[in-house]
C-alpha cells in the first residue's frame, strides 16, 4: 500500500508492506507529519517556532515536547559539529527573500541555537534575539514521528519518504536511489536498506535566478554557499540524517568527526559536468 500527500514543502510518500495494514495507520502517520509542520514551520506566523523567534528573548515560551526534542537535538548537533550546524540563520534566508519576513530584522543582532536556554523540559528562553529556521532538521524528525505512528498502529514493515528524507523499518530491503547531480531527473542506485534512514542535501533543484542566493548558509561566516555535488547521510534516525547532511555539505567533509558520534556515514556524489 502506498499513499502520497503534499506536506513539508514536498511530497510525502508512505509505503506499507503489510498485506492487511490497520486502517488508521496511514491517517495517524500523516497526522504526525502535519503536527510537526504546524509546530515548527517557519512560514506559519502562529507556529511555536515563530513564537520562539518573536518572544523568547523577552520572556519564556512554553513549547510542545516534540518542538523541545528537535531543539535539543539541534543543540547537540551544533555542539558535535563545532558550530557547522546551526539553525540560527533564518534571518539570512529572510534577507535573501527565501523565507517570509514576520517581523523587523536588525542586522548583526541575532544569536544562534546556542543562545536558546531550557528553563524546564518544555520552557525556553533566549539570551539574544533569535531567527531560528528548523528546515534543516524538522523534516527528518517528521519522518521519524510518522514511522513511530505506523509502528504504534501495528504496521510491521514499510517506509516514509519526505522529498528524499527516507526511513525504512521492518527488515524488508528497499533499493536506495539518489538523483544524479549532473542530470537530476536521472536516479543512481547506491545500494539497498532494510532498516535505518538516509537524507540528501543538494542545490540542483533550487528554483532561483543566477543572481539570487543559495538557501544553504554557513553559520560560521554567515555566507551563502554553492556546491554542485550532492551529499547524503545514513543514520539510525532520519532527524540525524537530515541535520548531518548540512554538516557534510557545508564542511565538504564526508568524514567529519561528528558523524561517528551519531553512528552515521556520509556519501558524496560528484557532479560529472563540473569535473
Describe the structure concisely:
By secondary structure, the chain is α+β, with helices and mostly antiparallel strands. The protein has helices spanning 25-40, 48-55, 65-80, 90-95, 138-152, 238-251, 258-261; strands at 2-7, 10-16, 61-62, 116-120, 123-126, 158-162, 165-169, 174-180, 183-193, 196-201, 217-218, 223-224, 230-235, 265-269.
Overall pLDDT, averaged?
93
Spatial separation of the terminal alpha carbons:
41 Å
Instruction: Quickly count the helices.
Output: 7
Mind telling me the C-alpha Rg?
Answer: 18 Å
Structural class: alpha+beta
Q: Please trace the helix and strand order, writing H or E for each element.
A: EEHHEHHEEHEEEEEEEEHHE
How many E strands? 14
- Unreliable spans are none
Q: Strand count, sense and closure of the main sheet?
A: 7 strands, antiparallel
Largest sheet strand order: 1-2-6-7-10-13-14
What does this structure look like?
With 275 residues, the chain is an alpha+beta fold. It is 29% helix and 27% strand. It has seven helices and 14 strands. It has helices spanning 25-40, 48-55, 65-80, 90-95, 138-152, 238-251, 258-261; strands spanning 2-7, 10-16, 61-62, 116-120, 123-126, 158-162, 165-169, 174-180, 183-193, 196-201, 217-218, 223-224, 230-235, 265-269. The strands form four sheets. The chain has a seven-stranded antiparallel sheet with strand order 1-2-6-7-10-13-14, with helices on one face. Helix 1 (25-40) packs antiparallel against helix 5 and helix 5 (138-152) runs antiparallel to helix 6 (238-251). It is globular. It starts with a strand and ends in a 6-residue tail after the last strand. 41% of the residues are buried.
